[in-house]
Amino acid sequence: MKNELSNHGLFGNAESGNIESIKSVYEMQKLILQKSHERKNIHRGIISFQAETARQKGLNSKEVFQQLVKENIHILADKNDIKIENLKWVAAAHNERGHPHVHIMFWDDKQTMTQSYVSRKIPNEIRKQLIKSIFAEELSEFYEEKKQATISLKQVTGEMIEKFEKAVTTLSPKSYRELEGLFSCGETNLSKWNGAFSSAELKALSQELFALKDRLPKTGRLSFQFLPPELKEQIIKVVDELISSNEQLKGALRLYVDSRLRLVDAYSGSQDLHEKASSEYSAEAKKLIANRILKAVKGLKTKDSELKRFEYKERMKIAFTRELALDVFNMLSRMTSTNQSSHNARLFTNELSKQAQKEKAKELESAGGDWNGENDYET
């Protein structure tokens, strides 16, 4: 893409310090050779686009390419540790069919010692930063898609597991213990709980969660990341079964992976990287589901603790009732014993009184008197 009234299209700030069209190719060649002799590294890079992408971005003239380089040249300086005020550069845009691109040569005008090595990560970092800058609007849409896909995945997973949590956490301790026993022995007839476990999907999930509860660590943070490998495998197996049995969850996972892949494709067109990333993002989505499952299992552990406290209180009530009954029995026993002794004493006193009366009457009769009562007598 040539400059006006010229046989070349060079532009940059290397000639005068201002970003403008370069007048002479020959003079620019001499300048770059001189800088090289001054032990300055001359860097060269190419920013290229697919034809469709260039069309969408309106990259169809030298002026547009010049503006693109002007807006992003600071990235090249920053990633190569060159102060922007010391950066000199020259560029040329080629509207090559199917491969529009711009060549850039740049250097640090204050460099005094030649560098013997430039890390390969530097051009990779430049490429990523250029993509973020040039495609900021498109990437913003991709990141929003990723955000919404993550929300959708968590929401669908949450709706499934919340049904289980609601069905279990509202149970009385006695019913919870009974339900746990049914799941542990593989029972499927759960009609007693008013249809709370009516769906086959929820029954299967409940069975797996109750089984996981007893395998998980008793202490420590309950997070997928910190579980031993064998437990991770068991939980991912539960996740896979959930996904295969629920089309809505399957769709949410697919949406999550696709949204992440669009970001990968924005940064790299490699098919191998695309396939590798697809597998990684699928595993990432499953970890999100796994952590939601672990949260539900944590709720079961809380329910177990409540049950233990309830059972302890029940045992204490029984023990208190037995002790109270024993105290009442002992008291009644003592009262019965006391009453019997009093009765016997009264019987003995009455008998003795009658005998005394008889003897008193005989004494009076022999003395010529009459007996009139307990203490009254006449002589």
Report on this model:
This protein is α+β, with helices and mostly antiparallel strands and 379 residues long. The chain folds into two domains: 11-134; 148-314, no CATH class. It has ten helices and seven strands. It has helices spanning 25-37, 51-57, 62-79, 121-134, 136-169, 173-184, 200-213, 229-245, 247-267, 271-367, and strands at 11-12, 20-21, 43-48, 87-94, 101-108, 370-371, 377-378. The chain has a five-stranded antiparallel beta sheet, with helices on one face. The protein has a two-stranded antiparallel ribbon with strand order 6-7. α5 (136-169) packs antiparallel against α9, α5 runs parallel beside α10 and α6 crosses α10 (271-367). The model is unreliable at 373-379 (pLDDT under 50).
Query: End-to-end span in angstroms?
Result: 166 Å
Class computed from helices, strands and strand pairing = alpha+beta
Radius of gyration: 48 Å
* Overall mean confidence score, pLDDT: 80
The percent range for helix content is 55-70%
* Regions with little confidence, pLDDT below 50 for 5+ residues: 373-379
Order of helices and strands: EEHEHHEEHHHHHHHEE
Work out the count of structural domains. 2
* Count of DSSP-assigned helices: 10
Strand content: 5-15%
What's the arrangement of strands in the largest beta sheet? 2-1-4-5-3
The tally of strands reads 7
General form = rod-shaped
In short:
By secondary structure, this protein is an alpha+beta fold.
Layout of secondary structure:
Elements: E1 11-12, E2 20-21, H1 25-37, E3 43-48, H2 51-57, H3 62-79, E4 87-94, E5 101-108, H4 121-134, H5 136-169, H6 173-184, H7 200-213, H8 229-245, H9 247-267, H10 271-367, E6 370-371, E7 377-378
Antiparallel strand pairs: 1-2, 1-4, 3-5, 4-5, 6-7
